[in-house]
UniProtKB/TrEMBL annotation, chain A:
Family assignment from sequence similarity: Belongs to the complex I LYR family.
GO (cellular component) term, any one: L-cysteine desulfurase complex
Pfam families per the UniProt record, alphabetical: Complex1_LYR
Protein name as annotated: Complex 1 LYR protein domain-containing protein
UniProt record, GO biological process: iron-sulfur cluster assembly
Residues of the Complex 1 LYR protein domain: 5-53
PANTHER family to which the protein is assigned, alphabetical: LYR MOTIF-CONTAINING PROTEIN 4 (PTHR13166:SF7), PROTEIN C6ORF149 (PTHR13166)
From TrEMBL, chain B:
PROSITE patterns the UniProt entry points to: CARRIER (PS50075)
Record flagged with keyword Phosphoprotein: yes
Domain of life from the UniProt record: Eukaryota
GO MF entries: acyl carrier activity
Keyword entries, A-Z: Fatty acid biosynthesis, Fatty acid metabolism, Lipid biosynthesis, Lipid metabolism, Phosphopantetheine, Phosphoprotein
Residue ranges occupied by any Carrier domain in the UniProt entry: 12-86
Name of the featured protein: Acyl carrier protein
Species for this entry: Emiliania huxleyi (strain CCMP1516)
Length: 73, 86
């Protein structure tokens, strides 16, 4: 059983928490949490695939954070 | 319960805040989060611990280094770590 990618989790959580809109924020946080828990037991190829999915999500969130959902003005 | 010297009085505030954050993460009542409780016994896994450390960083306006947080196994240890940074 491999350990969960905690750094990616933290990075995703950071981005999720940046949403100004309460509903977006709560949805994003729950989404990250649920995905990581659901994929916890994965190994090998499927684990690698989900990891890549997570990284793409992170990039997407980072791009969004500079748009209208940004915390900073 | 032994009485504590005055210097620790501020730490009980820290401890209570830590307990509060953990109880929120777990979704349980505060009184279920004892100071000497181990994270693992409370049902917290490594993902929960990441979120708790992030909440602590936000609450106390500090930065925790990841290596240090790996050694935190109880509620009291988390509070002690923060008290040491203030």
């Amino acid at each position: 059983m491999s350990a969960p990618p905690l750094t990616l989790y933290k990075q995703l959580m950071r981005e999720a928490k940046r949403f100004q809109n309460y509903n977006f924020r709560e949805y994003a946080i729950r989404h990250v949490r649920d995905d990581f828990r659901r994929n916890a037991g994965l190994q090998g190829e499927s684990a690698a695939r989900e990891l890549e999915h997570g990284r793409l999500e992170l990039e997407k969130l980072r791009r969004m954070a500079t748009g209208k959902h940004a915390m900073e003005d | 319960m032994p009485s504590r010297p005055r210097a620790r009085a501020q730490d009980s505030e820290t401890l209570d805040k830590v307990r509060e954050i953990i109880s929120e993460q777990l979704g349980v009542d505060l009184d279920k989060v004892a100071a000497d409780a181990k994270f693992v016994d409370l049902g917290l896994d490594s993902l929960d611990t990441v979120e708790i450390m992030m909440a602590l960083e936000e609450q106390f306006t500090i930065t925790l280094d990841e290596e240090g947080t790996e050694e935190i196994n109880t509620v009291q240890e988390a509070a002690d770590m923060i008290a040491g940074l203030k």
